[in-house]
Structure formats: structure tokens, C-alpha cells
Amino acid sequence: MGTRLIQVLVVDDYEPWHGFISTMLGKQPELRVIGHASDGLEAVQKAQQLQPDLILLDIGLPTLNGIESARRIGKVSPASKILFVSENRSPNIAGEALSTGAGGYVIKSDAGSELLPAIEAVLEGKRFVSRSLSGHDLTVGTHEDLTQNSESTAAPLRSGSAKIANQHVAQFSSDDQRLLDEATKFVGVALKAENSAIVVATKLHREGIFLSLKASGFGVDVAIEQGRYVAVDATETLATFMLNDTPDPGRFLGHFGDRILAATQAARGKHHRVSVFGECVNLLCAQGKIEAAIQVEKLCNEISKNHDVRILCGYSLGDFERTRDEDTFQRICEEHSAAYSS
Fold first, then answer.
1. CA-CA distances (angstroms) from residue 133 to 14, 70, 87, 156, 227?
2. Which one is predicted more confidently, 278 or 67?
């Protein structure tokens, strides 16, 4: 990228993502974040005011979506190069985004490894498209595509960790309904493939997930009879492995190892994989037992080394927004292969 200082405007409506991007770019002496915007109209205004060299632009923005923002930015700050950074994986949407004259399109989940190379390419006048979209014909999408896909229900907060062998995801949800929606989709995928699922949640959420699965036609009653769907109480589960407010590794690994083994044997899918949705860590955080929650996340990573398992950890996003505890938020994200908000 050379020695010239590159001024960057970051546009995204989720504050922790701003922090993640700023931290990443801050390690590059030639890149300087000079502003943030959280909606499309603000992005246009700040681009006109700041005339940045580079704009990192999300698609699912309030007020004005990122694609329309890019078109307007091209008129008020024509020298600014635009790199879309979005979790929207639709080739049509990516094609629509690139048709604005943007130099690249990076999937947020891949930003950890792709963002800096993408920035370098775009600044050199080259086009960069995430490997997740390689092989697709990035034709221009329709307005209907944009309306349906511009706001992802689960937006990534940071990229995966290479130290985590299998899928271990954190889901930060702004309310109960969003949490139930994501948990239902996660469990439903397993049941549809005739694999097994374990739900470790509060009574309210266990009932909500069950009703949502039933309403969505995922055959949850049959899965229960076959032992492929098991739902247990999160508070009671915590009691099986917590000692003096600290998770006991032996008890944790033994408890979940037995449950996962039984669920694996009950699975009828091709790969006999088990999906686990859990809220134990969220209960610990709500009790102020942050270190215990992080230790549980580490133990989940140990479980993933020995079992073919997918883990979705449900967190309340509101708790982190109220406390503004960015350090805890980042530490939790680092123990996952990916982290999402909804």
C-alpha cells in the first residue's frame, strides 16, 4: 500500500464491528480511520464532508441501504474508493453492489483473513471478491433481491479463530424472539438432515424453540421419540458441573460428552453430527460470573476437538450494550469460530 497515509471511513450500524475494524486497521501504520457512520444517509454526508480515500461500507443499513449509499457517494465524493464489507452472500446482491463502481466485496465472516488484502487490491485499482463468492456469476440483482436480502437476520461481528476445530458460534440477540428464531433455524437444520440436536436453555426458551420447530414442520415429535432431540434446563445443567462458581472440567466434559455420545448414536443422518444450542454461558454472564462463562467456552472448544459437534451459544446483546463491557465482549468472541448479532 506504500507509505502514503490512507484515510478510511467505516460505515456499519453495529458499534462492536466498528471497534473490531478500527483495531484491525490500527495495526497498519498507513491506514487511519477518520470517521464512522451508522446509517446510509450519514455515510453520504460524511463522505462528502471528509472525502476519504477509502470507504468500508455495509449493505444492511438503516435509512438508506449501502448500495444506494454507494451510488450517492459516487456523486459527492467521486475519488473515494468503496469496498463493501457485508455478510450478505447473495451473488445478485454482490453484483448489484459492484455495479455501483465499488472496487470489492468482502464477506464479513472472512474479514479476518481477507480485509487487508482486499483493501490493498482496491486501493491499487483492482477488483477483490471474497472467496466465498468465487465461482458465481456476479450479475446485477433485482430490486426484489435487495429488499429481501439487504438486512441479514444475523450479522457477523468478527471472523473465526484458527484454533477452533469445529463450528462454535456465539449468537448475540437483541430480544427473545430473535434468539428463538436463530435457535430454531440452527436446530431445524440438524433435524432436517436427520441428525441430532441438544437444547440447553431456560424453560421459556425451551418451550419457544419446541413450538417454533413444530410450527415449521421440522418433525420434532418424531425426533424426540428417536432420541435425536433432547431439551434440558440450563440452570439444572449448570449445577452438574459448577463447583464454587467455577466450572469443573472433569464434570463438564463427562456430562456433555455422555449426552453428545448418546445423541450421536441416535442420529440417522449421513454424518451423525450433533448440534448443541446452549444458554449456560449467558446465565453465568447475567450473574456477573464472566470468568466462569469464558472457562465454559474454552471447555466447549475442548468438546469440539473430540466430537463432530456444532455449538451455538446464545447471549443477550442488551446486556453488553448496557454495560459497554467491550473487553468481555471481545474475549467471548475470541473463544468462538464466529460471532453474530440479530
1. 24, 20, 11, 17, 37
2. 278
Enter the pTM of the model.
Answer: 0.56
Interval 153-182 mean pLDDT = 69
Angstrom distance (rounded) from CA 102 to CA 83: 6
Question: Which amino acid is present at 109?
Answer: S
DSSP string, 25-94: HHTSTTEEEEEEESSHHHHHHHHHHH--SEEEE-SS-SSS-HHHHHHHHHHH-TT-EEEEEES---HHHH
pLDDT in tens, 40-50: 999 999 999 99
Nine-digit cell at 111? Answer: 474479514
Model pLDDT, residue 1: 58
Mapping DSSP to helix (H, G, I), strand (E, B) and coil, where does residue 1 land? coil
| Spatial CA neighbour of 148 closest among 65, 220, 238 | 65
The helix (H) or strand (E) run that includes residue 138 is none
pLDDT mean over 180-193: 93
- The helix-helix angle for 326-334 and 15-26 (nearest 10°) equals 80
The three cell numbers of residue 156 are 457477523
Type of residue at 274 = V
- Chain center to CA of 186: 13
Q: Are 301 and 311 in contact (CB under 8 A)?
A: no
Amino acid at 181: D
Q: H helices within the chain, ranges in order?
A: 15-26, 40-50, 66-76, 91-98, 111-123, 143-149, 176-192, 203-215, 220-226, 234-241, 249-266, 280-286, 290-306, 317-323, 326-334
* Ordered structural domains, the chain, with CATH: 6-149 (3.40.50.2300), 155-341 (3.40.50.300)
d(CA 145, CA 337): 29
Backbone angles phi, psi at 168, to 5 degrees: -135, 100
Take residue 213 and report the three cell numbers written for it. 420447530
Query: What are 217-239's pLDDT values in tens digits?
Result: 999 999 999 999 999 999 999 99
> Whose CA is closest to 171, among 184, 189, 188?
184
